[in-house]
Design a protein that fits this description.
The structure holds two protein chains of two kinds. By secondary structure, chain A is α+β, with helices and mostly antiparallel strands. Helices cover 21% and strands 40% of the residues of chain A. In chain A, α4 (239-247) crosses α5. By secondary structure, chain B is an alpha+beta fold. Chain B has one domain (2-91). In chain B, 52% of the residues lie in helices and 23% in strands. The chains are: A alpha+beta, B alpha+beta.
Chain lengths: 297, 95
Protein backbone atom coordinates (compact mmCIF):
# COMPACT_ATOMS: atom_id res chain seq x y z
CA UNK A 1 0.00 0.00 0.00
CA UNK A 2 1.37 3.46 -0.91
CA UNK A 3 2.01 5.95 1.84
CA UNK A 4 2.32 9.69 2.14
CA UNK A 5 4.95 11.26 4.34
CA UNK A 6 4.23 14.14 6.70
CA UNK A 7 6.82 15.96 8.76
CA UNK A 8 6.07 17.73 12.01
CA UNK A 9 8.44 19.91 13.99
CA UNK A 10 7.36 20.00 17.64
CA UNK A 11 9.63 21.52 20.29
CA UNK A 12 12.40 21.30 17.68
CA UNK A 13 11.94 17.52 17.52
CA UNK A 14 11.33 16.21 14.00
CA UNK A 15 8.55 13.66 13.60
CA UNK A 16 8.13 11.70 10.38
CA UNK A 17 4.68 10.25 9.83
CA UNK A 18 3.85 7.59 7.26
CA UNK A 19 0.17 7.77 6.39
CA UNK A 20 -1.82 5.40 4.12
CA UNK A 21 -2.89 7.03 0.85
CA UNK A 22 -6.24 5.30 0.64
CA UNK A 23 -7.92 7.19 3.49
CA UNK A 24 -8.41 10.80 4.51
CA UNK A 25 -5.94 11.79 7.19
CA UNK A 26 -6.25 14.80 9.46
CA UNK A 27 -4.51 16.60 12.26
CA UNK A 28 -6.68 18.95 14.28
CA UNK A 29 -6.27 22.73 14.36
CA UNK A 30 -3.74 22.54 17.20
CA UNK A 31 -1.17 21.17 14.75
CA UNK A 32 -1.34 24.20 12.43
CA UNK A 33 2.12 25.67 12.16
CA UNK A 34 3.80 22.44 13.27
CA UNK A 35 3.40 20.70 9.90
CA UNK A 36 6.34 21.46 7.64
CA UNK A 37 5.99 21.68 3.90
CA UNK A 38 8.61 19.03 3.33
CA UNK A 39 11.97 17.64 4.26
CA UNK A 40 13.70 20.60 2.62
CA UNK A 41 12.08 23.04 5.03
CA UNK A 42 13.40 21.09 8.01
CA UNK A 43 16.85 20.81 6.56
CA UNK A 44 18.24 17.66 4.99
CA UNK A 45 20.96 17.44 7.61
CA UNK A 46 18.60 17.27 10.56
CA UNK A 47 17.88 13.71 11.65
CA UNK A 48 14.37 12.46 12.28
CA UNK A 49 13.81 12.08 16.03
CA UNK A 50 10.72 9.92 15.85
CA UNK A 51 9.04 7.82 13.19
CA UNK A 52 5.30 7.20 13.36
CA UNK A 53 3.54 4.67 11.14
CA UNK A 54 -0.18 5.35 11.00
CA UNK A 55 -2.55 2.45 10.34
CA UNK A 56 -6.30 2.11 9.93
CA UNK A 57 -8.37 0.09 12.40
CA UNK A 58 -7.70 -1.02 15.95
CA UNK A 59 -8.81 -4.49 14.90
CA UNK A 60 -5.85 -4.66 12.50
CA UNK A 61 -3.35 -4.29 15.34
CA UNK A 62 -1.32 -7.43 15.99
CA UNK A 63 -2.46 -9.06 19.25
CA UNK A 64 0.99 -9.18 20.78
CA UNK A 65 0.53 -7.41 24.09
CA UNK A 66 0.99 -9.03 27.46
CA UNK A 67 0.06 -7.97 30.96
CA UNK A 68 -1.12 -4.50 31.93
CA UNK A 69 1.57 -2.39 33.58
CA UNK A 70 -0.07 1.02 33.94
CA UNK A 71 -3.47 2.60 33.71
CA UNK A 72 -4.24 6.32 33.48
CA UNK A 73 -7.60 6.83 35.11
CA UNK A 74 -9.96 9.75 35.22
CA UNK A 75 -12.74 9.41 37.82
CA UNK A 76 -11.99 5.70 38.05
CA UNK A 77 -12.28 5.10 34.29
CA UNK A 78 -9.15 4.29 32.29
CA UNK A 79 -8.40 6.80 29.54
CA UNK A 80 -5.49 4.67 28.44
CA UNK A 81 -3.67 1.49 29.52
CA UNK A 82 -0.12 0.31 28.93
CA UNK A 83 0.74 -3.33 28.26
CA UNK A 84 4.08 -5.07 27.89
CA UNK A 85 5.21 -6.47 24.57
CA UNK A 86 8.38 -8.34 23.62
CA UNK A 87 9.79 -5.31 21.84
CA UNK A 88 8.44 -2.46 23.94
CA UNK A 89 5.03 -1.35 25.07
CA UNK A 90 1.50 -1.30 23.70
CA UNK A 91 -0.93 1.44 24.68
CA UNK A 92 -4.70 1.15 24.37
CA UNK A 93 -6.11 4.66 24.19
CA UNK A 94 -9.80 5.37 24.62
CA UNK A 95 -11.65 8.30 23.08
CA UNK A 96 -11.52 11.16 25.58
CA UNK A 97 -15.02 12.27 24.51
CA UNK A 98 -16.54 8.79 24.59
CA UNK A 99 -14.33 7.02 27.07
CA UNK A 100 -15.72 3.51 26.60
CA UNK A 101 -14.68 3.60 22.93
CA UNK A 102 -11.22 2.32 21.98
CA UNK A 103 -9.58 4.91 19.73
CA UNK A 104 -5.97 3.85 19.22
CA UNK A 105 -3.80 0.79 19.78
CA UNK A 106 -0.23 2.07 19.67
CA UNK A 107 3.06 0.18 19.80
CA UNK A 108 6.24 1.92 20.87
CA UNK A 109 9.75 0.61 20.32
CA UNK A 110 12.11 2.69 22.40
CA UNK A 111 15.33 1.56 20.72
CA UNK A 112 14.09 2.45 17.25
CA UNK A 113 12.17 5.54 18.43
CA UNK A 114 9.30 4.22 16.40
CA UNK A 115 5.52 4.18 16.88
CA UNK A 116 2.93 2.11 15.05
CA UNK A 117 -0.52 3.53 15.72
CA UNK A 118 -3.69 1.69 14.72
CA UNK A 119 -6.72 3.96 14.91
CA UNK A 120 -10.39 3.59 14.09
CA UNK A 121 -11.70 6.13 11.59
CA UNK A 122 -13.70 8.95 13.12
CA UNK A 123 -17.35 9.78 12.34
CA UNK A 124 -16.18 11.56 9.15
CA UNK A 125 -14.31 8.41 8.03
CA UNK A 126 -11.02 10.22 8.63
CA UNK A 127 -7.87 8.84 10.22
CA UNK A 128 -6.73 10.95 13.19
CA UNK A 129 -3.69 9.05 14.45
CA UNK A 130 -2.49 11.81 16.79
CA UNK A 131 -5.90 12.68 18.22
CA UNK A 132 -5.85 13.53 21.94
CA UNK A 133 -4.44 12.05 24.10
CA UNK A 134 -2.12 10.28 21.64
CA UNK A 135 0.23 13.22 21.04
CA UNK A 136 0.84 14.03 24.76
CA UNK A 137 1.60 10.33 25.31
CA UNK A 138 4.13 10.38 22.45
CA UNK A 139 5.68 13.58 23.77
CA UNK A 140 5.93 12.04 27.23
CA UNK A 141 7.92 9.09 25.89
CA UNK A 142 10.26 11.50 24.10
CA UNK A 143 11.04 13.04 27.49
CA UNK A 144 12.07 9.63 28.81
CA UNK A 145 14.82 9.40 26.18
CA UNK A 146 16.09 12.97 25.89
CA UNK A 147 17.13 15.88 28.08
CA UNK A 148 13.60 17.18 28.28
CA UNK A 149 10.55 17.46 30.50
CA UNK A 150 6.84 18.01 30.04
CA UNK A 151 5.46 20.21 32.77
CA UNK A 152 2.19 21.74 33.88
CA UNK A 153 3.24 25.36 33.68
CA UNK A 154 2.84 28.69 31.99
CA UNK A 155 5.85 30.28 30.35
CA UNK A 156 6.53 33.87 29.34
CA UNK A 157 9.39 35.68 27.59
CA UNK A 158 9.89 39.42 27.95
CA UNK A 159 12.56 39.67 25.27
CA UNK A 160 15.32 39.29 27.82
CA UNK A 161 14.37 36.50 30.24
CA UNK A 162 12.19 33.41 30.09
CA UNK A 163 10.11 32.68 33.18
CA UNK A 164 8.08 29.61 34.01
CA UNK A 165 5.23 29.40 36.55
CA UNK A 166 4.42 25.85 37.54
CA UNK A 167 1.75 24.31 39.70
CA UNK A 168 -1.52 22.45 39.81
CA UNK A 169 -4.81 23.98 38.68
CA UNK A 170 -5.79 27.14 40.48
CA UNK A 171 -2.38 28.36 41.69
CA UNK A 172 -2.30 31.23 39.22
CA UNK A 173 -0.32 29.96 36.23
CA UNK A 174 -2.59 31.60 33.68
CA UNK A 175 -3.02 34.71 35.83
CA UNK A 176 0.74 35.20 35.98
CA UNK A 177 1.04 34.66 32.23
CA UNK A 178 -1.70 37.24 31.66
CA UNK A 179 0.01 39.83 33.87
CA UNK A 180 3.29 39.39 31.99
CA UNK A 181 1.46 39.63 28.68
CA UNK A 182 -0.11 42.91 29.82
CA UNK A 183 3.41 44.19 30.45
CA UNK A 184 4.44 43.31 26.88
CA UNK A 185 5.85 39.80 27.33
CA UNK A 186 5.02 36.92 24.99
CA UNK A 187 3.16 33.92 26.38
CA UNK A 188 4.78 30.65 25.25
CA UNK A 189 1.85 28.68 26.67
CA UNK A 190 -0.28 29.04 29.79
CA UNK A 191 -0.85 25.39 30.63
CA UNK A 192 1.73 22.90 29.34
CA UNK A 193 5.33 23.36 28.28
CA UNK A 194 8.03 21.13 26.95
CA UNK A 195 11.46 21.97 28.35
CA UNK A 196 14.59 20.92 26.45
CA UNK A 197 18.27 21.27 27.06
CA UNK A 198 19.87 22.06 23.71
CA UNK A 199 23.58 22.82 23.37
CA UNK A 200 23.94 23.42 27.10
CA UNK A 201 20.95 25.73 27.51
CA UNK A 202 17.39 25.05 28.69
CA UNK A 203 14.55 26.17 26.42
CA UNK A 204 10.80 26.12 26.77
CA UNK A 205 8.43 25.29 23.93
CA UNK A 206 4.71 25.15 23.41
CA UNK A 207 3.29 21.99 21.86
CA UNK A 208 0.08 21.40 19.88
CA UNK A 209 -3.00 21.96 22.06
CA UNK A 210 -6.72 21.67 21.27
CA UNK A 211 -6.70 25.22 19.88
CA UNK A 212 -4.71 26.84 17.12
CA UNK A 213 -1.44 28.51 18.09
CA UNK A 214 1.87 29.02 16.34
CA UNK A 215 4.98 27.17 17.56
CA UNK A 216 6.85 29.21 20.16
CA UNK A 217 10.22 28.85 21.81
CA UNK A 218 12.13 30.89 24.40
CA UNK A 219 15.17 30.47 26.65
CA UNK A 220 14.35 29.55 30.24
CA UNK A 221 16.00 31.53 33.04
CA UNK A 222 13.75 31.41 36.11
CA UNK A 223 11.31 28.88 37.55
CA UNK A 224 8.59 29.91 39.98
CA UNK A 225 6.12 27.86 42.00
CA UNK A 226 3.31 30.38 42.62
CA UNK A 227 0.56 30.26 45.20
CA UNK A 228 -2.04 32.80 46.25
CA UNK A 229 -0.98 34.90 49.23
CA UNK A 230 -2.07 38.09 50.98
CA UNK A 231 1.25 39.72 50.09
CA UNK A 232 4.01 38.93 47.61
CA UNK A 233 6.61 36.55 49.06
CA UNK A 234 9.73 34.88 47.66
CA UNK A 235 11.31 31.71 49.08
CA UNK A 236 14.41 29.97 47.78
CA UNK A 237 15.77 28.40 50.94
CA UNK A 238 16.15 24.71 50.20
CA UNK A 239 17.18 23.93 46.63
CA UNK A 240 16.41 20.23 46.87
CA UNK A 241 12.95 20.85 48.30
CA UNK A 242 12.21 23.29 45.46
CA UNK A 243 13.44 20.74 42.91
CA UNK A 244 11.15 18.08 44.35
CA UNK A 245 8.21 20.47 44.39
CA UNK A 246 8.87 21.31 40.74
CA UNK A 247 9.31 17.62 39.88
CA UNK A 248 5.82 16.95 41.23
CA UNK A 249 4.42 19.16 38.45
CA UNK A 250 6.29 17.36 35.67
CA UNK A 251 4.20 14.90 33.69
CA UNK A 252 5.25 11.33 34.33
CA UNK A 253 4.05 7.76 34.44
CA UNK A 254 5.54 6.30 37.59
CA UNK A 255 5.56 2.66 36.54
CA UNK A 256 9.09 2.79 35.14
CA UNK A 257 11.76 3.70 37.68
CA UNK A 258 14.35 4.34 34.94
CA UNK A 259 12.10 6.99 33.41
CA UNK A 260 11.55 8.60 36.82
CA UNK A 261 15.29 8.60 37.45
CA UNK A 262 15.89 10.27 34.09
CA UNK A 263 13.32 12.96 34.86
CA UNK A 264 14.82 13.46 38.28
CA UNK A 265 18.26 13.92 36.72
CA UNK A 266 16.80 16.49 34.32
CA UNK A 267 15.13 18.41 37.17
CA UNK A 268 18.31 18.35 39.25
CA UNK A 269 20.23 19.65 36.23
CA UNK A 270 17.67 22.42 35.74
CA UNK A 271 17.91 23.40 39.39
CA UNK A 272 21.69 23.78 39.09
CA UNK A 273 21.35 26.09 36.13
CA UNK A 274 18.57 28.40 37.31
CA UNK A 275 16.80 29.36 40.53
CA UNK A 276 13.56 27.65 41.49
CA UNK A 277 11.57 29.74 43.95
CA UNK A 278 8.21 29.56 45.71
CA UNK A 279 6.30 32.71 45.02
CA UNK A 280 3.43 34.00 47.14
CA UNK A 281 1.40 36.12 44.76
CA UNK A 282 -1.03 38.99 44.95
CA UNK A 283 -2.25 38.98 41.35
CA UNK A 284 -1.62 42.52 40.18
CA UNK A 285 1.14 44.24 38.23
CA UNK A 286 3.18 44.96 41.38
CA UNK A 287 4.21 41.30 41.50
CA UNK A 288 6.20 41.76 38.28
CA UNK A 289 8.39 44.40 39.87
CA UNK A 290 8.64 42.25 42.99
CA UNK A 291 9.88 39.32 40.88
CA UNK A 292 12.40 41.40 38.92
CA UNK A 293 13.79 42.90 42.15
CA UNK A 294 14.45 39.41 43.54
CA UNK A 295 16.02 38.24 40.28
CA UNK A 296 18.49 41.11 40.42
CA UNK A 297 19.27 40.67 44.12
CA UNK B 1 18.23 -5.81 63.67
CA UNK B 2 18.85 -8.53 61.09
CA UNK B 3 15.10 -8.81 60.45
CA UNK B 4 15.09 -5.07 59.79
CA UNK B 5 17.99 -5.41 57.33
CA UNK B 6 16.08 -8.14 55.49
CA UNK B 7 12.93 -6.00 55.35
CA UNK B 8 14.88 -3.01 54.03
CA UNK B 9 16.52 -5.10 51.31
CA UNK B 10 13.08 -6.36 50.25
CA UNK B 11 11.76 -2.80 49.99
CA UNK B 12 14.71 -1.38 48.06
CA UNK B 13 13.19 -1.90 44.57
CA UNK B 14 10.33 0.43 45.55
CA UNK B 15 12.73 3.34 45.99
CA UNK B 16 14.81 5.47 43.67
CA UNK B 17 18.21 6.64 44.91
CA UNK B 18 19.78 9.61 43.13
CA UNK B 19 22.96 11.64 43.59
CA UNK B 20 22.19 15.38 43.67
CA UNK B 21 25.87 16.29 43.71
CA UNK B 22 25.92 17.17 47.40
CA UNK B 23 23.86 14.35 48.85
CA UNK B 24 21.80 11.35 47.86
CA UNK B 25 18.04 11.32 47.91
CA UNK B 26 15.66 8.42 48.32
CA UNK B 27 12.24 8.66 46.74
CA UNK B 28 9.40 6.23 47.20
CA UNK B 29 7.93 4.70 44.04
CA UNK B 30 4.82 2.80 45.00
CA UNK B 31 1.67 1.87 43.08
CA UNK B 32 3.17 3.55 40.00
CA UNK B 33 3.42 6.90 41.76
CA UNK B 34 6.65 8.61 42.79
CA UNK B 35 6.11 10.64 45.96
CA UNK B 36 8.28 13.75 45.63
CA UNK B 37 6.94 15.28 48.83
CA UNK B 38 8.32 12.46 50.99
CA UNK B 39 11.99 12.06 50.23
CA UNK B 40 14.94 11.21 52.45
CA UNK B 41 18.38 12.74 52.08
CA UNK B 42 21.42 10.54 52.74
CA UNK B 43 24.98 11.58 53.47
CA UNK B 44 27.97 9.72 52.04
CA UNK B 45 27.86 6.92 54.61
CA UNK B 46 24.07 6.56 54.40
CA UNK B 47 24.26 6.34 50.61
CA UNK B 48 26.99 3.69 50.88
CA UNK B 49 24.87 1.62 53.26
CA UNK B 50 21.80 1.93 51.02
CA UNK B 51 23.71 0.88 47.92
CA UNK B 52 25.52 -1.99 49.63
CA UNK B 53 22.69 -3.39 51.70
CA UNK B 54 21.68 -6.64 50.05
CA UNK B 55 19.52 -9.62 50.81
CA UNK B 56 21.59 -11.94 53.00
CA UNK B 57 23.41 -9.12 54.78
CA UNK B 58 23.33 -8.89 58.54
CA UNK B 59 24.56 -6.41 61.09
CA UNK B 60 28.10 -7.77 61.17
CA UNK B 61 28.54 -8.01 57.39
CA UNK B 62 27.28 -4.46 56.91
CA UNK B 63 29.52 -3.19 59.69
CA UNK B 64 32.48 -4.89 58.04
CA UNK B 65 31.66 -3.28 54.67
CA UNK B 66 31.43 0.18 56.22
CA UNK B 67 34.64 -0.23 58.24
CA UNK B 68 36.49 -1.35 55.12
CA UNK B 69 35.19 1.57 53.06
CA UNK B 70 35.63 4.37 55.57
CA UNK B 71 38.44 2.99 57.82
CA UNK B 72 36.26 3.66 60.88
CA UNK B 73 36.09 2.24 64.39
CA UNK B 74 33.86 -0.85 64.50
CA UNK B 75 32.04 0.09 67.70
CA UNK B 76 31.17 3.55 66.45
CA UNK B 77 30.13 2.18 63.06
CA UNK B 78 27.79 -0.32 64.67
CA UNK B 79 26.05 2.40 66.69
CA UNK B 80 25.74 4.66 63.65
CA UNK B 81 24.47 1.76 61.55
CA UNK B 82 21.78 0.91 64.08
CA UNK B 83 20.66 4.54 64.25
CA UNK B 84 20.57 4.79 60.44
CA UNK B 85 18.62 1.55 60.05
CA UNK B 86 16.03 2.83 62.53
CA UNK B 87 15.73 6.00 60.45
CA UNK B 88 15.15 3.84 57.38
CA UNK B 89 12.60 1.77 59.31
CA UNK B 90 10.58 4.91 59.90
CA UNK B 91 10.88 6.24 56.34
CA UNK B 92 10.20 2.88 54.71
CA UNK B 93 7.28 2.32 57.09
CA UNK B 94 8.58 -1.01 58.35
CA UNK B 95 6.89 -2.20 61.53
Amino acid sequence: MSEATIHLKIADFIFQLFVPNNVLFSLDCGFEGYVTEGRAEIGDGEPVDLTIYCHVGCSNAPKIWGGEIYSAKNDGIALWKIFKTHEGICIHVNDSEEISRLQHIAFYQEEKQEWNIYSDLNESQTLESLRYPMLPIILYYLTTQTSSLLVHASGVFDGKHGRLFSGFSGVGKSTMAGLWQDSGAKIINDDRLMLRKIDGRWWMFNTPMYYSDSPKKAPLDFIYLPFHQVKNTYERSNGLEMSMRFMAHCIQHGYNSIHVQRHLDNVLNLSKEMPIARLGVVPNMDVLTFIKDHEQA
Amino acid sequence: MNELIKSISEKKPQFICRDTGEEMILIRLENNVADFNQYLTLNEVGAFIWENLNEGDDESSLTAKICAEFEANETEVLLDLQAFLEKLRSYLEIK
